[in-house]
Each structure stands twice: as C-alpha cells, then as structure tokens.
Amino acid sequence: MTHIHFIINPIAGSGNHKINQEFLQRFFDKNSYEIAVKFSVHKNHTTLLAQESIKENANIIVACGGDGTVNEVASCIIGTPILLGIIPLGSGNGLASNLKIPKNIKRSIEIIKKNEVKKIDVGRLNDRYFFSNTGVGFDAYVIKHYEESNNRKLFSYVKAVFKSFKYMNDTRKVDVIINNESFKVKPFMIFISNSNELGYKVSLTPKASLEDGLLDVIIVSRLNAFKILLFSFLMIFKRHHLIKEVESFQTKNMILSRKDFNHFKMQIDGEYRLIESNEINISMSEKKLNIIC
Fold it and tell me: Are residue 144 and residue 104 in the same domain, yes or no?
C-alpha cells in the first residue's frame, strides 16, 4: 500500500482548481493507495503539514501549488526516501516546467502514478533551501511588489516590474566571493539558479541543469534606465549576456556580504524573504531530492 499525501495551496494561481479527496480518489485505486488531502490556510502552514505527513509515514508527498509551495514541501524531505510529486497550480511553476511536469492536472497525476524518479540537486542559502532559484536585487523587489498586489495574474507581474524600477537608485555595495575571486558590486541583480526557468517560460540561465552539481549565477551591475529596458528585451531572446554589465558564473558555492546593512532582501523560489544577516552563504548539494517527473 502506497501512502500518498496531497498538500494543496487553495489560492495558488487563479485558485479555480477543484482538487479534493473525491476528485483524487477517482485516479488512485483504494486497494493500492491510501490518500490524505491537506489544505494550507496561511503562509508557512505548508511546512507544518509536510512535517505532519512525514510523521504519518507518507511514501509520497505531492505539492499542489506554485514554486513556493513546492519549496516548503521539498525542504522538509531532503535526504529522506520520501518522494516529491508536483501538481503545478501556481502562476510561474518554474521548477515543474523545467521538469516537464504539465499544468494539466490529470496529466500531472498520471506522471505521479508512473512513479519515475529523478534525483536532483538542491541549493542552500544559510539555513534555507531553494530548488529553482534565488536572488538579490531587482528580482526580489519584483516578487515583493507582486505579492503585495494579492493578484496572481501576468498583468500583476508586469505592474510589479515597473514598480520595482525605483530600486535602480540604490547604490549599496555587496561583497562577492565566487570561485576564489573576491570583488565588490553595486548590483542591479544577483541571480543564483539551479533550474533553467524562472516561470512564464522566461530564463536568465538557459543552460542551467538540476543534475550538474553546479549553480548558474548571473551578476548584473547597476544599470541606467535605457540599459534596464535593453536587458529586459534581450532576456526574452536569451541574449541578455550581450550587455557588458552582465557576468555569468558556474560555481558550487559563493558568499555575499555587506557592511552597511544587517539584512538582505531576497526572493527564494519566487517568494519574498528578508534574510536577517549581513552574510549569505550559498552552496550546492548534489542529488539530495527524490522527485517524480
């Protein structure tokens, strides 16, 4: 008997999905599967539900939501034999898209039933994990304003982008150590990726792999208004590296630090986070998560 637990974010994406116990039972034979369905009701509740499922000896935990929901579930089962399934319900779904898990609910359920497992790499940021990407700078501000809109549509994301342009006036320096090289940068963006997609089919690191044991890093120095527009345009065609302020790296670990502030405003897998530290240690752990895809 396979114990499979579904943890559902009911407001993910449009919030119009109808996943519940009755719906799921149609796909899973009662003689082969024992199903539990849980709904998160507030931020970070998903973590508590996943920890509860671990204690209840779940064999598979399925994250039903966006990249933030996936992050909370996956962070709990790293290094365990428990398998992660994904039903992508969010607005971006970068990790699911990278793994070719479709947004169609019935098709994603069929993938879970096939139970083909891949071991993927996991990024670590101090005491937190990330699976798709994390970043300091412009992308973090975009996520912050996107979350404040309380609307999970593409238009809200575009509005958040324009609202975040004021961040380009920030001139604080960040010390970077990467591949034994130290330098200072006034960043427009420092983007660290394990996956080749942000969501909405957009990519800053199109060559990134979940299985190569490396993080792909983009460091973009401060840009003027024209360069920001040019960067955004080139990013659509995956040619943003043509701008001289854009530097690309691959690494297993890096350190970000600053002397003027005791915190970093960041996005972690598409969720805004305030990291209360003046130093961020970012590293890669190879093949730490068992995922059905």
Answer: no
- Say if pTM beats, i.e. exceeds, 0.85: yes
- Give the pLDDT confidence score for residue 237 in this predicted structure: 87
Whether residue 288 contacts residue 121, with contact meaning beta carbons closer than 8 Å, is answered with yes
CATH number at residue 251: 2.60.200.40
Q: What is the pLDDT of residues 47-72, one digit of tens each?
A: 999 999 999 999 999 999 999 999 99
Q: Which of 63, 89, 115 is the last residue of a domain?
A: 115
Q: What range does the domain containing 91 cover?
A: 2-115
